[in-house]
Amino acid sequence: MNFEVKLPNFEGPLDLLLYLIKKEKINIYDIPIAEITNQYLMYINHLDTINVDSISEFLVMAATLLEIKSKMLLPKLQEEEEDPRQELVERLREYQKYKEVAIYLKENHPYRESYKRAFELRNFESNFVVKVDVNKLIETYKNILSKKETTSSNNDERLQEITKKQTISILKVIKQVLEYIKQKGVAYFSHLIKGISKDEIVYRFLAILELCRLGHISLHQQKVFDDIKITKR
After folding, report:
1. Tell me, what CATH number does 134's domain have?
2. Which of 88, 140, 205, 207 could, after both became Cys, cross-link 173 (CB 3.0–4.6 A)?
């Protein structure tokens, strides 16, 4: 019998044993222990040039196979006596699972750099003061509107009217928000914007930022996307 596969190609005794089982197309649950043991020992006999320390695990497995073989040859005392191959089968099954996982990981190793990194939220202080100038925000908004393509000669006049209206509205909202917070002592942004239009939400948010900048209120937020707690200073 010609043995082309050498032991160093195997990762351990279970690897060699699994190879023999697959080679002979044997059902792992019905191992012909005598045949497998003989083949296993023949592999071991071809290792006379290998350091004994490096094949100690293989020798232990050989002893295990011989023990199972001897038990299989002895007459059973009881019909319900456990199959001596059972423990070996369980070990082979577990090893086979790890082997399949190892092959999968090896095949996917080249793609590890393409995995997307999970979004990471950085820690930030729960108490913060936002420095913003509401007039600059209005001016920025005005500049954005002025860059839009116009289809009417009245757009400049409309822009002035919109900006003037916004300035008046924001100043009015600032007073309303400040008065509300003075009465409540503590307020939440979700309460301030409940049941109002999108434009009004923007005005009230700008009002809160300006009041915070002026030092009239403090803003608190435990984590990202949490409600903003507003307290009077």
Report:
1. 1.10.10.580
2. 207
